[in-house]
Write a structure and sequence with these properties.
By secondary structure, the protein is mostly helical. It contains 10 helices and no strands. The protein is elongated. The relative contact order is 0.09.
């Protein structure tokens, strides 16, 4: 099968992953079409120069994982740019919708930092989906930043009160949504959302105390 036909075969996977990931962040953060483009670029990078034998291992689950982390890595980069570009405006904005939106983005970014770091640490060879989304222009400095931010976020989570820590660990470490956490521990989804947002404020303050004002 030629590369163009193979790429078309993976488009449906990219679209499914993009739809799922779009629900994780506010619409103003990144649009569905952009997520699809990021996913397609990731797929192109993965299949470029590969032999038929190498391509055989790229099953749907493998490709879906690579696309997901390519998108989340872009989100992390984009939020860093977004927060700097709009810092003055965001500090002046009011209203619950604006605050909820920023909290949702930050939640997704922290999750991406923790998850990418964990995925990278677990990779024991050059054959994991993570290897295909590394940015050669950002390594090793960026990788070091991910590891450092992951360490600080984990420290901040460890310092939370027991209830908040449990909820946040379910959210970040197990990638569970608020409604699923609510079912598990017997609280309402809205209460879980408030706990997560409150915890994000505490994590942000901890990061600021460590001189990290950009997350």
């Amino acid at each position: 099968m030629d590369k163009q036909s193979l790429l078309k075969q993976y488009v449906s996977i990219v679209q499914k992953v993009a739809k799922i990931e779009q629900r994780r962040v506010p619409n103003h953060m990144i649009e569905y079409e952009e997520l699809v483009s990021i996913g397609i670029i990731a797929v192109q990078a993965m299949i470029k120069g590969k032999t038929e034998e190498q391509l055989q291992k790229y099953n749907d689950a493998y490709m879906g994982t690579a696309v997901k982390w390519a998108i989340r890595n872009e989100l992390r980069h984009r939020y860093k740019w977004y927060s700097m570009k709009h810092k003055a405006d965001s500090e002046e904005e009011g209203g619950e919708e604006g605050e909820d939106g920023k909290a949702k983005v930050k939640e997704a970014v922290y999750e991406a930092i923790l998850s990418i770091d964990s995925l990278a640490a677990a990779a024991s060879d050059n054959d994991s989906p993570f290897d295909f989304i590394k940015d050669p222009h950002a390594m090793p400095d960026e990788n070091a930043e991910i590891v450092e931010m992951s360490r600080l976020i984990k420290e901040a989570i460890a310092n939370l009160p027991q209830k908040e820590r449990t909820v946040v660990e379910y959210r970040f470490y197990r990638n569970m949504q608020a409604k699923d956490i609510a079912t598990m521990i017997g609280l309402s989804p809205s209460r879980i959302t408030r706990i997560i947002q409150g915890a994000l404020v505490q994590i942000r303050e901890y990061l600021r105390s460590k001189g990290r004002n950009d997350y």
